[in-house]
Structure formats: structure tokens, C-alpha cells
Design a protein that fits this description.
single chain, 139 residues, mainly alpha, Four Helix Bundle (Hemerythrin (Met), subunit A), 67% helix, elongated
Length: 139
Amino acid sequence: MFPSRLNNTKKPNSQPTPQAEEPSDVPQLYDLSKLRKMVDNDQEMINKMIDMFLKNTPDLLNEMKAFWHKGEIERLSKLAHKLKSSINLMGISTLYDNIRSIEKFAAESNPEQQAQLPDLMKELNEIMEKVLVQIRQTL
């Protein structure tokens, strides 16, 4: 007998067991079409760019957090600017507005805008964590 998950049958009155979401259950948070176009579908170059993204992004996010906690807002803005191009190239559309807001709000001296930075930083980190997992799963 196959597990119910494989043959799509359920036992009557059975409770669903919690399972980790499978990659196919989660919407893809990135789109490499812009990268593919930029490198004319050169798979070797695509792989290099993805490897660089996977290697550099966690460190960049950690630096951003550190600058935020130290109150070095101007440096946070500069790192957001740097990350913005990677987000754009990797087609992470859910973060387009987020990273632009972080860059802008950190660069300006508007307390109301800067008060939004903790939530924006949290969203950035949560989504990027998911993106990094998704990309690693597809390699």
C-alpha cells in the first residue's frame, strides 16, 4: 500500500500530519529571466552569478543588520543600494519596493521614515532567507 501522499487518498477521519512545505508548494520568489537575458543564456556565467549571490548575500545582510544596530544609518543605505542591484538581477520582485525604501529612508533624516526601517529590515531578511533556500534547492 502506498502512503496517502503518493496515491492521493486519505483515511476517513484522519488528521493531517504537519509536514515541511515542499518546494513545489511555495511560490518561487525569484526569476532568473533578467539574468539569463543579460548573459545571453550562458549557463556557466549564470552559475557563477548565482554562486556569488549565494556566497555574498548572507554577509551583506549581516552587515546591514550590524549597521542598523550600531545606528550607522548612512552605511545601511549604501549597502541597501548595493543589494538592490542583486535583487533586481535575481528577479526578487517581492523585495523591489522594500530595498528601495530601506535605501531611501536610511539616506534621509526623516524620523517617521526611519521608524519604518525595523519592519522593512525584518521583511527583507525573512524573504531573503526563503529565496536563498529556494535557490539552493534548485542547484
